[in-house]
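To: structure desk
From: M.T.
Subject: fold request, one chain
Message: Could you run this one when you get a chance? Sequence is below, nothing fancy, just the single chain.
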Amino acid sequence: MAQGLRGDAVVAGFVERRAERRFTGTPRLGLEQWADLAADVLADAGIAPHEVDGLCCGGDPGESSMFVPATIAEYCGWKLSFAERVDLGGASPVGMVWRAAAAIELGACEVVVCAASMQPRPAPPRPQPVDARVSFGASSNAWGSPQAEFDIPYGNLGQNCGYAMYAERYHDQFGWDERSRAKIVADQRVSACANPDAVWFGHPVTVDDVLASPMIADPLHMLEIVMPCNGGAALVVTTAERARHLRHRPVAITGFGEYLTHKTPTYAPDLTTTPVGPAAKRAFAMAGITPADVDMVELYDCYSITVMLSIEDSGFCGKGEGMAFVRDHDLSYRGDFPCNTHGGQLGFGQAGLAGGMSQVVEAVRQVQGRAGDRQLARHDIAYVSGTGGIMSEQAALVLRGL
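Reply: Done. Structure tokens follow.
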């Protein structure tokens, strides 16, 4: 077993808001959203609020761009011995969970809340202008950054462009089977249609439907691209000893990995091999298992090509074999390779940072046996991935039920 986690830290509870394209509630401050998620996840686990001594967050709640953990702790009335703000884009939720587990195993704390929310906030009295570069998907847009100097001025500033580059290069090297990419979307939509909280609940699609949808960034079609929505999610991580006396089956965090190689595709070492490979290898080694041992995979899926590359690089098949693998397996919750059993973000929706949290939540839900109509028969071991930027920052988790 690789040096790392012992599995003494567990996820004890979760909460997830319904994905909504059109928000039906009342706009609230980001701090209120965070505090409400925290209260609900602690109630789900059966832990009192005063027992919280750690938190992990990502981004900022909107009311503060600095000292974010302290701002949240103050608002929630917590006294913390561990606080972390994770800045890994869509990989942040996976990063939050393993950092919480590591802090608990080190004895720094015993109860850590990890949360992310994306719901409307009240408009301030004097709204600030939005940087147009950010509106179109730029991130490192400040003077002096390589992206600001060499990418943004030439129009290469959005995620669609970057992921299309990955897809184009992948198919040029390994073959042009676009139906396999579309099948990922269709299979995951089967699972979304079994999830009443999914934004695409009740809307199945076929491979032909996906390929007939408008081309957004060649070769990626509209239905291969995630749907932004409103929502939120939270997890509570605690000690295995404490969790034995709580409400739900403890889900041990037994392995993790994290790997970063670049910020933008312009500087990617290889557009067909992604950072999730080394992250997955470390996670599986730490957990003492192989990819063949897992009962489900919950793979970050901002685009169909992200899933294809993650299946290969995580070790479920060889490089360039992903298209055949997808053709030969059923990726729905009813299939022989359950992938994104909640529908994935392509079927459930992407509520900002909480989009990546949905994969971790679904893994915990399945392992705890709380997935309702889409509950898997075998649900003891889950593999989860997270992806930030444009295949830039990737992380992996192995979760096991106790």
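Reply (cont.): Residues 91 and 387 are 5 Å apart (CA to CA). Let me know if you need anything else for the meeting.
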